[in-house]
Design brief:
Elements: E1 5-6, E2 22-30, H1 35-48, E3 70-75, E4 78-83, H2 93-101, E5 111-120, H3 123-126, H4 135-142, E6 150-154, H5 163-174, E7 179-181, H6 194-212, E8 217-221, H7 227-241, E9 246-251, H8 252-255, H9 257-265, E10 273-276, H10 281-284, E11 289-291, H11 293-303, E12 307-309, E13 336-337, H12 344-352, E14 362-366, H13 374-383, E15 391-394, H14 396-399, H15 405-418, H16 422-425, H17 430-441, H18 447-454
Parallel strand pairs: 5-11, 6-7, 6-15, 7-8, 8-9, 9-10, 10-12, 12-14, 14-15
Antiparallel strand pairs: 1-13, 2-4, 2-5, 3-4
Helix pairs in contact: 5-6, 5-15, 6-7, 9-11, 11-12
Length: 462
């Protein structure tokens, strides 16, 4: 792990005098990485992301300098660069801000490393964006204000099923759990047209809602060229079916922040926006060039995301096991190791902390989860002050149960309920929690849960 300590932008000594600017934090490598080299590298970066170029030019005017970037602070190989707020053409939306805070410097041959760590936007800019329509409280209200984690599922196989077969799998989830979502690449394929899938799924969903009186939610993928048009078509079909329990799912990184913002801006679109972050790893996984997902998360919140995939606290298939570092237990640390900026704990804190008028975003844990992973997710989520307010999705962790999808979904939701009991919440030692769960699953009639806990690939994480 890169132990380089990062100072959050708002914690800089020079923050107050630069608080009306856009500020980026970038970690670089240049020449031999001496103090002088890093300084020169940051000058090259600042020029490239604002009004300069690689040589002096004769066309610079006094007026053109109003767009110049400046170095606020250098801390080791991390530079804090200020950009005039007016450099962001707000009419260009998020496309233009990426041109400014990302721009060309990732491609500068002279830089051996350039990683965008963080970004700060002044209140004057943040106030121009709507943020989530529902936020955590609004989403939970749609689920009847339940007092536990939201239990959801990705239909598997995620591609290839016909609309009817897909809806049948979703139906089995809905009988027990709360939410079903399309996966990132299922949209309007010929083998599973969106209208057929939506109609079949919502018709089944509504029958279950009427019978159980429990709210359900379907996150339907609207990632297409005319994303606003698709959202309107989906909403119209939902109204025709008398089925309100759905969200607009968008592959946010792939479709772009402007697409998310466009859906959020429409006053006639009344359903939550669910962001799947597919493809983010192409930009966030590298440690030399790219950016943290923290940068994306902040802008998704500005753009209007109600739910956002951020990680599983290291409990799934998308990354190594995350630990509860002391610094992550602090609400506002003065310094944090660079590699922890993309930890689920740090990302989720940013989604729920107060930020101008923006409502908090519901974090979604998705990717390799299973019933026995939920106690750990719940414990980590509580450690950041978010208690049970998180959505948890399982694909194989539900459909991989030998007794089928419905039993798998029952197992998954039941663990979400168990960890909210007063008895379980009172346990502080790891062994006590493990023993409690194992004993519960050993009760007569709980064989399905015991199987889930005993499965070699799953187990229990507390």
């Amino acid at each position: 792990m890169d132990e380089t300590l990062y100072t959050p932008i708002e914690k800089l000594e020079k923050f107050k005098e630069n608080k009306d600017a856009i500020i980026i934090a970038v970690q670089i490598s240049y020449k031999n990485d001496t103090k002088e080299d890093i300084h020169q590298g940051l000058i090259e970066l600042a020029k490239e992301t604002s009004s300069g170029t690689w040589v002096d030019v004769t066309t610079t005017t006094k007026e053109s300098t109003q767009a110049d970037a400046w170095i606020i602070l250098e801390k080791g190989n991390i530079g804090y660069i200020g950009l005039p707020a007016h450099n962001w053409d707000i009419s260009g939306g998020f496309n233009n801000v990426f041109s400014n805070i990302g721009g060309n410097y990732f491609g500068l041959y002279v830089l051996k490393k350039a990683r965008l760590l963080d970004v700060y936007f002044p209140p004057a800019i943040v106030k121009q964006f709507p943020g989530p329509r529902f936020g955590i409280d609004g989403v939970y209200k749609l689920f009847g204000n339940m007092k536990r984690m939201i239990a959801g599922s990705i239909v598997k196989p995620k591609m290839g099923l016909s609309a009817v077969d897909w809806a049948k799998v979703a139906e089995n989830v809905f009988w027990e759990a709360d939410l079903v979502k399309d996966d990132e690449n299922l949209c309007n394929q010929t083998f599973c047209p969106w209208k057929d899938r939506f109609t079949e799924t919502m018709t089944r969903q509504q029958k279950i809602v009427e019978k159980t009186r429990a709210p359900k939610m379907y996150a339907h993928n609207i990632t297409t060229r005319d994303i606003v048009g698709r959202a309107r078509d989906v909403q119209a079909l939902g109204e025709k079916l008398g089925a309100p329990g759905f969200s607009f799912m968008i592959d946010g990184v792939i479709a772009g922040l402007n697409a998310v913002h466009s859906v959020r801006e429409q006053d006639d679109l009344k359903h939550p926006i669910y962001i799947h972050r597919a493809m983010h790893g192409a930009m966030t996984r590298g440690k030399d060039f790219g950016m943290t997902f923290l940068v994306w998360a902040k802008m998704f919140r500005m753009a209007g995301a109600d739910y956002l995939h951020t990680g599983t606290y290291g409990s799934g298939k998308m990354g190594e096991r995350e630990e509860m570092h002391d610094v992550l237990l602090q609400e506002d640390p003065d310094e944090i190791p660079v590699d922890l900026l993309d930890s689920t704990m740090y990302l989720n804190r940013w989604l729920i902390k107060k930020w101008e008028h923006l409502k908090p975003v519901l974090p979604m844990a998705s990717g390799g989860l299973f019933p026995g992973a939920l106690p750990r997710v719940r414990r980590f989520n509580a450690a950041i002050g978010n208690s049970f307010h998180i959505g948890c999705n399982a694909g194989g962790g539900i459909h991989g149960h030998p007794d089928g999808t419905r039993v798998g979904a029952k197992s998954f939701k039941e663990v979400a309920e168990i960890v909210e009991t007063k008895e379980y919440q009172a346990l502080t030692a790891e062994k006590e929690r493990l023993d409690y769960l194992a004993k519960f699953a050993s009760k007569p009639g709980k064989e399905y849960l015991k199987w889930a806990f005993d499965r070699k690939e799953w187990g229990i994480l507390v």
